[in-house]
């Protein structure tokens, strides 16, 4: 129980409409009476219950300034009313204590920290000049207009305090006035170039606001001319402050209180609705974090779709970590959310082909540029190689991710080969059909010489793929030899030869090295041709000596290479490129490739 004074019996004032002069005289009398009550230590004659707190006070100081209490006393049928209850007073016991001090003329400090509390309790208790000159309503209004609502910091403090004083703070326009003040000062500073020097502290101040008040402040700023793309850093600060404690780095969802989860879900959905529409206003990393939080908190589908589309527009600026979104589903087996990344990639391809901006500003946003295609292709191949080691990734999921990577974005197939090799290594129980389906996403004709050397000795690959690799490498080497025979000392490599190794003309040392390699390969191939001719002669003699004859393949269908040929060429490639004898390889820089031939075509290797 709080004792602010002592008791004296007085008759309540029932005449409200008095002249200003009589009010001033009465105020002086009340002030002297209050001082006399305190000085004489008179026992209290009224108990005021505010929530769980009780105040032992005196009727006279209270009814003289509080219209609400005066009405309660006057309406009571009990002449000797000694207790009243005020259950719904804004600010509770703390606010009523300050109002009671004001009634007893006890000095206390008014600041931006308590002005909202005082203004609301004064309104609730009807402490207006109608009951006493210089009452608390007028005093707090003067402080608001002359001091508190003159700076961003104090206005934010008032707005933050008002969150617990609703609905009365809304009714007296305290919330709207604080929001308008913040928006006005921010936009004014922005117009005069002062925003950069003050941004750090006032943006940080806004993060203490509740999400609905924060949203109203930003909308008010936009209505006053604040540029939308400048909202990005403010939203990033608020998201970091409000969502920073979410554990979204690992697989699965952690236990979280339902009320807290709902609050964070509302915060995230509101932030997404406020994101600037300009393409480069936010980093891809920030969008990726928001998307992870949206999946984790199970926000609305529209919220997640919006974030996916935003990421797809800026996919050319993304790095691998931005796409490694953990799988938060308790029923899912894979480590990463593959389906979400596939949708992002498909949106990117849609924008690239159609140029559909889906509501984004034309001045600031365009569909992904052609230069982004190569970057995105490299990024997606890196992503495929990263998820390939997941033992729970099915063949269909691996193939579906590989197929959304446009072939025109893959200058060489080395990264695709690396991803396939890693997948086959992590999934050794696959059948021959499944391994062949996995390898079907790769164009063997676009492998570099180094990758071909490794693939030719890779026991994890199906035999059909190894044959294709060896054939294309032989074909490429034959073209090189033909060029060298026609032009023994060419000053530079002809443009018609596709080297798969570089886009820049090789230097003289490399030409010399290639010539030596080609001579060695030419010698080996000559020996192989001689052996093949001998075998053919033997076959012809056997066919002629057989009574019924032997069916020979037509001339337009070449023979399949035997194991001896594959082994010989593999050994030769291994000698030329000894660094590719191990299982794990480091892929070279991507090169320009050739068109992919039909998979059903069988080619001669003689």
Q: What topology emerges from the helices and strands here?
A:
Blueprint: E1 2-3, H1 20-40, E2 46-50, E3 53-57, H2 59-65, H3 67-75, E4 83-85, H4 92-103, H5 115-124, H6 136-146, H7 152-162, H8 168-171, H9 174-191, H10 195-206, H11 211-223, H12 231-243, H13 258-274, H14 284-297, H15 301-313, H16 320-323, H17 338-354, H18 370-387, H19 395-403, H20 414-426, H21 432-439, H22 449-455, H23 463-486, H24 508-545, H25 563-576
Parallel strand pairs: 1-3, 2-4
Antiparallel strand pairs: 2-3
Protein name: BTB/POZ domain-containing protein
Pathway: Protein modification; protein ubiquitination
Family: Belongs to the NPH3 family.
Q: Which descriptors apply to this entry?
A:
single chain, 606 residues, mainly alpha, Potassium Channel Kv1.1, Chain A, four-stranded mixed beta sheet, 25 helices, 4 strands, 2% strand, disordered N terminus, disordered C terminus
CATH class label of the domain at 27-148: Alpha Beta
* Assembly of the depicted chains: single chain
What is the CATH topology assignment of the domain at 27-148?
Potassium Channel Kv1.1, Chain A
Structural class: mainly alpha
What value does the average pLDDT take? 76
- How many β-strand runs? 4
Tally of helical segments: 25
Spatial arrangement of strands, main beta sheet: 1-3-2-4
Which term fits the overall shape? Answer: elongated
Helix content: 55-70%
Family: Belongs to the NPH3 family.
Pathway: Protein modification; protein ubiquitination
Keywords: Ubl conjugation pathway
GO biological process, one term: protein ubiquitination
